[in-house]
Design a protein that fits this description.
globular, Spore Coat Polysaccharide Biosynthesis Protein SpsA, Chain A, alpha/beta, 7-stranded mixed sheet, Aspartate Aminotransferase, domain 1, 678 residues
Length: 678
């Protein structure tokens, strides 16, 4: 199989014109790249691909003088340029290099090439997730993948950036990633885009050997750390971001592959999904049902559609997909093991962090999901008080003790159903009446300290006093609010400390982990009460949670969730008013987790309106269920995309309502709520 390296080069850079032929350490930048390319193990030939523009005649002349073939094609359609070069060279495998990476490491590129071959992938790179210094990027892909992309890609960003079409379609094009073995290098900037980059490279180059490796560059920077400040302000991948901003909302590729896979999945999995809220009954017909990957605040489905993710895994993904710190912690622990025959120190280290941050926490026990934690809290409360009845306010998971009190109680024994009583939020009189009806029988009141509405002034304080007067325990279900509203949870935000609390979701940025915590006198009941699981001390999730909490302590994660959520809420309110739908659409709750509220219209039920809205949001490139589940990685471009989708979806809803026949014209069945708990 013939493997070639194609160096993408042009002189018409907007930020630093002519950069690829600028002198660096006594030779043109392009020569640095060409020499590195020629040293890549497994590459049979190196060629240059430039445009047919007169500006790039100098690139072609340089290539001829250096002894490299030069293939010329459209300036902005770089994908076609690469396809033409690959055809001309009869290549089976192509490695894409860019001429603005003079410190390219041949051995790293060789590993990417070997990874492609040995995994049988269609695409391999060291760029996703970002773990290497910016400036060491290389991609390898098959000729088949390149030809299919060139034939089918239509977006300008797909044509300009060569591999986007392939990268977006992981179900179709199997992919592999080479992750840097050294941690913390993704923030390094060794590429050439702006004058400051050239200043940096010149300062580094004078200390490098003739053919430097990335370790040589690191050695220079570690000895002279002040050099990093020269170009530290520049954003990574700024060119790609700019090309996205030039485009309108992305075209939707449909959900044909998702639909086919759903039929396959439903033959062996009830509803085709392991999670009720991720199944087909939650989304309009012909919606995406299967995702392939996520990065930062976005996800991609099996049909190659990219979405700004406003679901974020039902809230666990609080930092964003492929967070470098969390992923590094997981990889580091993976080299030591996953589940062990005895405890690891990680359990203590994480518990100590929780005790430090969360007011009620004196002792901690871990689980794998929110239901583990809430159910453990209820069993502890029953053991500690010697009582059976439970009052519940909010949603607390799928175990019999709670779900039996809802409309989804099929399979729950009637005797169990009678022990749990649901209470409305912000209603002290209802709580008093319930306790009066069953005096001395309640073990606990478990509640979400907040969801869609704020607690009334003094409500939580008075409720705590009422619960304690009854001889029961107050349990806060902070599976959602914990590590989203405040580092110490809603109990820190509102200044009310419960006896026990359950945390989960955001604790692990997507890893399965939860915790029940509380006063030592209550938690020590576990020495006699059996609450135990094989995977409670599973080490990857513990390591991930430690990384999440440490990052939240040193970076403005929580503050960003509040600000991002508030920006979205404010702008959505303006859009709804602008479309005359302010009485139909609103967002309620706190900024880090705003919940969509939809009202009936005289001509359409709210369920039908919401179905149409969700359908249009998906087709506008936003994965949306029923709330704004913002994450730390959602950036300004994501926010703009979400708001543009809201604008388009609201316009569609307004137009359909104006016909008076929205439900009749709805192109899919109405999605009906499964059951209401908030």
């Amino acid at each position: 199989m013939t493997a070639i390296a194609i160096i993408q080069a042009r002189l018409s850079s907007t930020r630093l014109p002519g950069k690829v032929l600028l002198p660096l350490g006594g030779r043109p930048v392009l020569e640095w790249v060409a020499r590195a390319a020629q040293a890549i193990p497994g590459i049979h030939k190196v060629v240059v691909a430039t445009s047919v523009g007169a500006d790039d005649d100098a690139v072609a002349a340089w290539a001829e003088g250096f002894g490299l073939a030069c293939h010329r094609g459209p300036l902005d359609d770089v994908l076609e340029r690469f396809a033409q070069a690959a055809r001309a060279e009869n290549a089976d495998i192509i490695m894409r290099l860019t001429a603005d990476c003079p410190l390219l490491d041949p051995q790293v590129c060789g590993e990417v090439l070997a990874l492609l071959k040995r995994t049988g992938s269609s695409y391999a790179s060291n760029a996703t997730p970002p773990s290497w210094p910016d400036g060491l990027d290389c991609e390898a892909f098959t000729r088949t993948a390149l030809d299919e992309a060139a034939a089918e890609a239509t977006r300008s960003s797909d044509r300009e950036h060569v591999t986007v079409f392939i990268r977006d379609r992981r179900h179709r094009f199997p992919q592999a990633s080479l992750v840097c073995p050294l941690p913390g290098l993704s923030a390094e900037r060794w590429t050439l885009d702006e004058p400051a980059d050239l200043d940096f490279l010149e300062a580094v180059a004078e200390h490098l050997p003739e053919r430097p490796s990335y370790l040589d560059v690191l050695g220079v920077l570690d000895a002279r750390p002040e050099l990093r400040a020269i170009n530290a302000r520049i954003t990574r991948n700024e060119g790609f971001v700019k090309s996205l901003r030039r485009e309108s909302l992305p075209p939707w590729n449909g959900a044909a592959t998702s639909t086919a896979l759903l039929k396959r999945a439903e033959a062996v999995i009830p509803l085709g999904s392991q999670t009720f809220s991720k199944s087909r009954i939650q989304y309009p017909e012909d919606s995406p049902m299967f995702l392939t990957h996520g990065l930062n605040g976005r996800v991609w489905d099996v049909d190659g559609n990219c979405y700004v993710d406003m679901v974020c895994g039902l809230l666990p993904v609080v930092l964003g997909y492929q967070d470098s710190d969390v992923d590094a912690a997981i990889r580091g622990q993976l080299s030591n093991g996953i589940s062990f025959s005895l405890a690891t120190l990680l359990e203590t280290q994480l518990a100590e962090r929780l005790v430090e941050l969360i007011p009620c926490a004196e002792m901690v026990r871990f689980g794998k999901n929110g239901t583990d934690a809430t159910s453990a809290a209820i069993r502890l409360a029953r053991a500690h008080t010697g009582r059976d009845r439970v009052a519940a306010c909010g949603y607390h998971g799928w175990q019999d003790w709670y779900i039996g009190a809802t409309t989804r109680n099929k399979g729950v024994p009637a005797a169990t159903q009678t022990l749990t009583h649901l209470l409305p939020y912000n209603d002290l009189d209802a709580a008093r009446a319930l306790f009066k009806a069953h005096p001395g029988e309640f073990a606990a009141l478990i509640m979400e300290p907040m969801n869609a509405v704020d607690p009334a002034p003094g409500y939580l304080e008075a409720l705590k006093e009422l619960v304690h007067a009854e001889g029961a325990l107050l349990v806060f279900d902070e599976v959602i609010t914990g590590f989203r509203y405040h580092l110490g949870g809603a109990q820190s935000l509102f200044g009310v400390t419960p006896d026990l609390a359950s945390f989960g979701k955001s604790m692990g940025n997507g890893m399965p982990i939860s915790a029940v915590m509380g006063k030592a006198g209550i938690m020590r009941e576990m020495e006699n009460v059996f609450i135990s699981g094989t995977f409670g001390g599973e080490a990857l999730s513990l390591a991930a949670s430690i990384a999440v909490i440490d990052k939240m302590k040193r970076e403005p994660v929580i503050q960003t969730l509040w600000s991002t959520g508030q920006i979205l809420a404010d702008e959505v309110a303006k859009l709804a008013a602008g479309h005359g739908l302010a009485d139909i659409f609103s967002l309620v709750g706190k900024a880090p987790w705003k919940i969509l509220a939809v009202q009936d219209h005289p001509t359409a039920r709210k369920e039908a309106i919401k179905t149409l809205f969700a359908r249009e949001m998906l087709r506008a490139g936003v994965l949306f269920l029923a709330s704004h589940n913002v994450c730390y990685s959602h950036d300004s471009e994501d926010i703009n995309r979400v708001l543009a989708a809201w604008d388009r979806a609201l316009a569609k809803v307004a137009a359909e309502l104006a016909t008076g026949r929205l439900e009749e014209r709805l192109p899919c069945p109405v999605v009906m709520p499964v059951f209401k708990v908030r």
